[in-house]
Amino acid sequence: MAEQAGDPLFQSHDPIFDRKELLHVGHVPDEDRIVGRDDEIQSVAAEVGAITRGDPPNNVMIYGKTGTGKSLISRHVATRAQTAARSNDIDCGVLYIDCSEANTETRATRQLALSLKDQTGYQENIPLRGVGTMEYYQHIWGILENFFDAIIVILDEIDKLDNSNILMQLSRAREAQKTDAYIGVIGISNKVKYRETLDERIDSSFGHRELFFHPYDASQLREIMRNREDAFQPEVLEDGTIELCAALAAKKHGDARKAIEILKEAGELARRTGSETVSESHIQQAQEVAEINRIEELTSGATVHAKLALYALASRIITGDRETHKTREIYERYVGICNMVTTDPITENGLYRQLKEQAFLGVIESEKTGGGRSQGSYLLHRLVTDPKHIIKAVRRDDSLEELPAYDQLADTGAADNRDADLSSFS
Ligand SMILES: Nc1ncnc2c1ncn2[C@@H]1O[C@H](COP(=O)(O)OP(=O)(O)OP(=O)(O)O)[C@@H](O)[C@H]1O
Ligand SMILES: [Mg+2]
Asked: pLDDT of 41-94, one tens digit each?
């Protein structure tokens, strides 16, 4: 062992990071590192807090974009409520279910039953398969009966559940005399649209409050990152790096997870290039990589036509002199690109629908413009991000990597022949 530590092949000391784990994606920060969400913590506590006094809690739905602290704050408040309840001699359980994995009622109830069993001395065997939802509910009520005065159930990514029966069962359990325990449900979704469908899916028994978590602003992101500065060795972060990282992330999305990832990526970049410090330029480069990853994620479920449409719009912006383009203009370029990758183009109307979908994903913005009396109105589309990132993200699709890279497009654009010069495109 001792010899290994001295092997020059492996540096014994990381020159950049001291506690890198603070920047890992799955890392859950300690209580004292949670910042900028005091109001939200208060609001969630106000809904479920009655449990700590032996009173019935409210159910609550939390909505907000990705990386706004919904999962973190929910778990944080639930755990604190549990501790506070215990100090009042109330047995309160906290159950966390990720509905993106447990996405059916059977899976969700099974996980609920198993986690409840884990937290108690429940003796009965809970089968992993071969039984239905009803049997899992029986176990749940049985465990509640014997071990708990109250539970808080967090249903994260609740929009992934194929039906909302579990919400009804949990909220009606007392009324239906399945259990005497109080049950507080915290539902979480980053799809605000889910809200509309939820009302149709559930009845009044799931009476619930709604909370909205907003994207972080630059000063909150700064605070979140400052609180993890000790991930780095002393003096490694140059002045202004955290401020720059926060400003860029706030401008793009206000997502804390992404901001932290950029900081980590900047550190890795510094280390790879043998730099002793992390500079603003490392942050800039890391932000580019992160932005391309983000677009790749956003478009990962999109069709190849949507990707080609995005590529068409980006390439027009790069080779032309305008930021906004009509559907028709994008379509013409798109058809040319389809020829290059030997794909049959879809209709203009089909493409228009794809563009609307991208607008929904937040990759492009579309605006209706009056085209004068004879022309009628038409849509103008723009990218919300640097076209360079779109080109890179689209080319990461294996079937599209032969498309011209950004540099090739930029050279063509500089040749001043602009659109006409792209004979290979349209
Ligand atoms: N207020 C905060 N203070 C410190 N760190 C935070 C804060 N908010 C978020 N983070 C960091 O960002 C990560 C992402 O937050 P969280 O998982 O709560 O986001 P989310 O809103 O649930 O996103 P998604 O919709 O993608 O699930 C957390 O694990 C944590 O590291
Ligand atoms: Mg979450």
From this structure: 999 999 999 999 999 999 999 999 999 999 999 999 999 999 999 999 999 999
Name the pairing type of β-strands 377-383 and 325-326: antiparallel
Ligand 2 centroid, distance to 157 Cα (angstroms) = 7
Question: What's residue 5's pLDDT?
Answer: 58
- Is the CB of residue 256 below 6 angstroms from any atom belonging to ligand 1? yes
Closest CA to 264 of 244, 250, 278, 248: 278
Q: How far apart are CA 121 and CA 138, in angstroms?
A: 16
Query: Which residue is it, tokens 């109307």?
Result: 349
Q: Does the CB atom of residue 154 touch ligand 1 within 6 A? A: no
Q: Is residue 23 part of a domain?
A: no
DSSP structure string for 32-100:
GG--S-HHHHHHHHHHHGGGGGTSPPPEEEEEE-TTSSHHHHHHHHHHHHHHHHHHTT--EEEEEEETT
CA distances, 390 to each of 64, 172, 309 (Å): 25, 48, 11
Distances (CA, A) of 405 to 26, 391, 418: 33, 7, 16
What is the CATH classification number for the domain harbouring 349?
1.10.10.10
Give me the CATH number covering residue 238: 1.10.8.60
Residue 70 is assigned to a ligand binding site: yes
Cβ pair 23, 290 in contact under 8 A: no
Distance 135 CA to ligand 1 centre (A): 35
Contact present, 153 and 185 (Cβ < 8 Å): yes
